From TrEMBL:
Pfam families: Cyclin_N (PF00134). It comes from Perkinsus olseni (Perkinsus atlanticus). The keyword Cell cycle applies. Belongs to the cyclin family. Residues 1-14 have a biased composition (Polar residues). The keyword Cell division applies. GO terms for biological process: cell division; mitotic cell cycle phase transition. Residues 150-235 form the Cyclin-like domain. This is Cyclin-like domain-containing protein. Residues 1-24 are annotated as: Disordered. One of its GO terms (molecular function) is cyclin-dependent protein serine/threonine kinase regulator activity. Keywords: Cell cycle, Cell division, Cyclin.
C-alpha cells in the first residue's frame, strides 16, 4: 500500500515548484474565516487557465443577460415614459378655478378633485333613509324632530359656533335616531344637545362647557346624564364623525360659480331652512 501511493505523490509533485535544497515551495494566505488571526494555511496554487476561462464565460453570460434585460426594460418602459411625460403636465388636469390657488398649499388644488370624489362616496355611505322616523321611532314624530332642530339653531347661534357645527349636529342626530329605535321622547332633547356638544368638539376651537350645556336645557338633565349620552352616541356611531355636510358642497359650488356674497348667504339660508325637514 505504501509503494502504490508513491507514484501518485510523484505526479502531484511534478506541478509543484521546488526550492533550494529540494524543499517544496507553497503559497500561503490567511484563512478567510479568521481575518484578524495571523495563522496561515498552505494552499497549492490553483490552475489559472481554468479560472480565467470561467471568468470569461461568466462575463459573457452576464453581458448577454444585461443586453436582454436592457431590451426588455426599454420595451416595457416606453409607455411608462409617455405616462411620466403626461404626469409632468399635471397642472392641466386642475380645474381653471383652482389654478390660481396653486401657490397656496392650504387649498391643495392638485387634490381637489380626488377629495370631492371621496366626499361624495362618504355622503352616500352615511346618508339616512327618508322614512327612517316612521320605521324606527314610535314615541317620536317628525314634528318633534323639527322642533328640536329649530331650537338647536338658536342654541348654535347663542354659543357663536361655526356653521359646520350645526350641520354635523343634525347629521349625528339623524344617524343616532336611525340606529337607536324606540327612543323615549323625554330623551330627545338630551340627544340633541349632546350631539351639539360632540359636533362642537369636532369643529370648533372652543366647545361649550358642560355647565353651559346643562344650563341651556333649563337643568332638565344632569351633568352625568349628558356625559353618559355622549358615550352612548359615540359608541352607537362607531366614532365615525367625519361626514361631509351640505355646507362643504356649498362652499365648493360657490367657488366654482364665482358667486358673490349675496347669493352665497341666500343659498346658506335655504340650507338652514331645509334642516328641520
Amino acid at each position: 500500500m505504501i509503494t502504490g501511493s508513491r507514484p501518485q505523490q510523484a505526479q502531484l509533485s511534478e506541478n509543484i515548484p521546488m526550492g533550494k535544497g529540494g524543499n517544496t515551495v507553497v503559497e500561503s494566505r490567511k484563512r478567510g474565516a479568521f481575518m484578524d488571526i495571523s495563522n496561515t494555511v498552505n494552499v497549492v496554487p490553483a490552475q489559472t487557465g481554468v479560472v480565467t476561462r470561467s471568468k470569461a464565460a461568466a462575463a459573457r453570460l452576464s453581458a448577454n443577460k444585461l443586453e436582454d434585460l436592457d431590451d426588455t426594460v426599454m420595451q416595457g418602459t416606453t409607455p411608462a415614459r409617455l405616462e411620466l411625460h403626461q404626469l409632468v403636465d399635471w397642472k392641466d388636469t386642475i380645474p381653471p378655478e383652482d389654478r390660481q390657488d396653486l401657490p397656496n398649499p392650504q387649498f391643495v388644488s392638485e387634490y381637489v378633485n380626488t377629495i370631492f370624489v371621496h366626499m361624495n362616496g362618504i355622503e352616500q355611505k352615511y346618508r339616512q333613509s327618508w322614512d327612517y322616523m316612521a320605521r324606527t321611532q314610535t314615541d317620536i314624530t317628525e314634528r318633534m324632530r323639527a322642533v328640536l332642530i329649530d331650537w338647536l339653531v338658536e342654541v348654535h347661534w347663542k354659543f357663536k359656533l361655526v356653521p359646520e357645527t350645526l350641520y354635523l349636529t343634525v347629521n349625528l342626530i339623524d344617524r343616532y335616531l336611525e340606529q337607536c329605535p324606540n327612543l323615549p321622547r323625554t330623551r330627545l332633547q338630551l340627544v340633541g344637545v349632546t350631539c351639539l356638544l360632540i359636533a362642537s368638539k369636532y369643529e370648533d376651537i372652543y366647545a361649550p362647557e358642560m355647565k353651559d350645556i346643562v344650563s341651556i336645557c333649563d337643568r332638565t338633565y344632569q351633568r352625568h346624564e349628558v356625559m353618559q349620552m355622549e358615550v352612548d352616541i359615540l359608541n352607537t356611531l362607531g366614532f365615525c364623525l367625519t361626514t361631509p355636510s351640505a355646507m362643504m358642497f356649498l362652499l365648493r359650488y360657490a367657488k366654482v360659480m364665482e358667486c358673490d356674497e349675496k347669493h352665497f348667504f341666500l343659498a346658506q339660508y335655504c340650507l338652514e331652512l331645509a334642516l328641520p325637514e
